[in-house]
């Protein structure tokens, strides 16, 4: 039954998110055009003089502004994917649509797992699409700049380094943890007699504050402990504070995801008598 739930959730998200990501490709193309136009007009502005140079410079400024807006829209797409997944969770479980969902012969665990897997898969697609779009735009601008400078040193874009992959994994873990936390906040807010959305926002803010306090305390403790051991580290060794902070962040995100998952399951079991 989990497979059927996952297919249903994926289909529901795809109906909204697939057109958005197709539009992202168009925005990336527009960004490339604006960036190339800005570079070309900028070169023309340097070469021209008088009013023509000022005119070229003005149009170059407009082109670069449009380029910046396009890149901003590409980055906003990740937030849009996040909010679409969160809205889908709320609408499917805590509105009139939830009457059908919560009467299916499934467990609370299956419902939450299906929602998390579908949203996680689309967020992964989003990261890859947005990253590829930004990389292609910047590569096109770099090639164009090399052509304008009449340089023969145009290379292919390099693959991500291991540290960049680790940063990607860390960022993805964070967004998944906060996604499940948003699910938990919606589940908690649904218990309010009135203003359920406002209660959900308040619950999410409380979760965010609690996570921030816990991370701050753990980092202070780690910093104090490592400072006490600092004389034991040889001169020129790697700084231990950065890795320790990253490890604390990962542990806190895993704990946040686990606690939020449990809260969602408990709330669903109390919301209706699921099997």
Overall average residue pLDDT:
80
Secondary-structure element series: HHHHHHH
Structural class: mainly alpha
Indicate how many domains the architecture comprises.
2
Keywords: Membrane, Transmembrane, Transmembrane helix
Transmembrane segments: 62-86, 119-145, 165-186, 198-227, 247-268
Structure report:
The chain crosses the membrane at residues 62-86, 119-145, 165-186, 198-227, 247-268. This protein is an all-alpha fold. It folds into two domains: 1-158, no CATH class; 161-275, no CATH class. It has helices spanning 2-47, 50-94, 98-101, 108-148, 162-189, 196-229, 241-271. The model has no long low-confidence stretch (mean pLDDT 80).
Features:
single chain, 275 residues, mainly alpha, 2 domains, 7 helices, 0% strand, globular
Brief synopsis:
The chain crosses the membrane at residues 62-86, 119-145, 165-186, 198-227, 247-268. This protein has 275 residues and is mostly helical.
SSE blueprint and pairings:
Layout: H1 2-47, H2 50-94, H3 98-101, H4 108-148, H5 162-189, H6 196-229, H7 241-271
Helix pairs in contact: 1-2, 1-4, 2-4, 2-5, 4-5, 5-6, 5-7, 6-7
Keywords: Membrane, Transmembrane, Transmembrane helix
Transmembrane segments: 62-86, 119-145, 165-186, 198-227, 247-268
